[in-house]
Every structure is written in C-alpha cells, then in structure tokens.
Amino acid sequence: MTPSLRPLSPTEARVLATLMEKARTVPDSYPLSMQALLTGCNQKTTRDPVMNLTEAQAAEAIDELKGLSLVIENSGARVPRYSHNFMRGVGVPEQSAVLLGLLMLRGPQTAGELRINSERWYRFADISSVDAFLEELQDRSAEKGGPLVVKLPRAPGAREQRWAHLLCGPVDLSGANAAGSASSATEDDVIALTRRVNELEAELQRVTTTLARLCEQLGVDTAPATGSD
Fold this sequence. Notes:
Layout (H helix, E strand, L loop, with lengths): L9 H16 L6 E2 H8 L13 H13 L3 E4 L6 E4 L1 H6 L2 H13 L4 H7 L9 H12 L10 E3 L11 E3 L7 H9 L5 H32 L11
Antiparallel strand pairs: 1-3, 2-3, 4-5
Helix pairs in contact: 1-2, 1-3, 1-5, 2-9, 6-7, 6-9
C-alpha cells in the first residue's frame, strides 16, 4: 500500500472488498446503496469470517475509507451510493486488486483456490499467472508501501501454501498455520469442492442483491428485528 495508507480494520476491509466484488459480479446494481452494501457484507457464503455488521458500523467504515480515498460516494441519486477506488488508492493493477479483494473476503487461500474463486471477477490464464501477481505483491518495494501479501507456512498435510493479505496489518503466522492444519482435506479436494459450489454461490449472490434492490425500491426495511418476544 502507499506509505500514507494505514492498516485497515476488519470492518473497513469487509466493506471495501464487498464493493470490489459487487462492481464485478453485479454491475447493474453498482454503485451500491447502503442496504445492498450491508447485504453483501453480511453474506453467509463466500465470506471468512462471517460478519453481522450494523448500518452504523458500515457507515463509519465508509467515512474512514472515503478519508483514505478508497471509497467514493456517488451523489445525485435518491439514496447515496458507494463505489471503490482501490486500484488507484492502493496503486496496484487490476489483477492484483482482484486477488487482494478475494483474500479480504475469503481469508487465506492457495493460488489454485484464488484462480477458481476469481472466475467471476477476472479469468487468469493459469495458476502460474496467479503466482506471479502474488509474488509481485509480496516483493513490493518500501517506496510503494511495502508488501501487500504474505505466503503462510505450509500446514501439516497440505500440498500447497496459502497466501494472506496484509491490508489489515501483519498476520499471526502461528495462528494462521494452526487454522490451516485444522482441515484434513487435500488441495485437490478443496479445489474440486470450490468449483462445485461456485455456481450456487453466484446464483445466491444474484438473488440476494436483487432482493435488496427490490426492498430498497419498495421502502421495506430488511434489518433484523431487535428485542425479546
């Protein structure tokens, strides 16, 4: 990241990465309203960790990201809408932005997982091209802001090493390694499973975004009710 860009909070990273994702997966609904943004941030699929952000938390993150020139508020519509300015704000090419967005949304992943998960964002030619962009992000010079990703230690039983982003600051390598070793699935198992659920996840995202847009147009509040019965 640029030298002036501070580490992001987990909430800021989720808001920013959600805007990055929806810009590519649901362009007809982009820029996003606050309601659509909240729905995307709090998805139960393709998110690690799953969050339950409130509108106040998302609004605070938006204000902070606008101050960092990473989010732009689009005025003139009936309701405010928001878009990201990630590539220019951080100073990375499109392919690198895609990989960083996926890492912010889904947590540490191997190059193979990133290639599969990026299919709706950007089609990389092969895993070696993913590796090349990751290595470039890892070797980023101090003049440009330093590394943006780190390769995690190989987890026991895993064939491939996973990558994590550094946009929220340094990664606890021991904790990340322990989390990675909790699963006994092989790399091939993970990639095969990811490919099988991609279409279902994409369809769920489209339905959820459409529902949020309809509720917004109808003036229906989709926020969960609070209080006891």
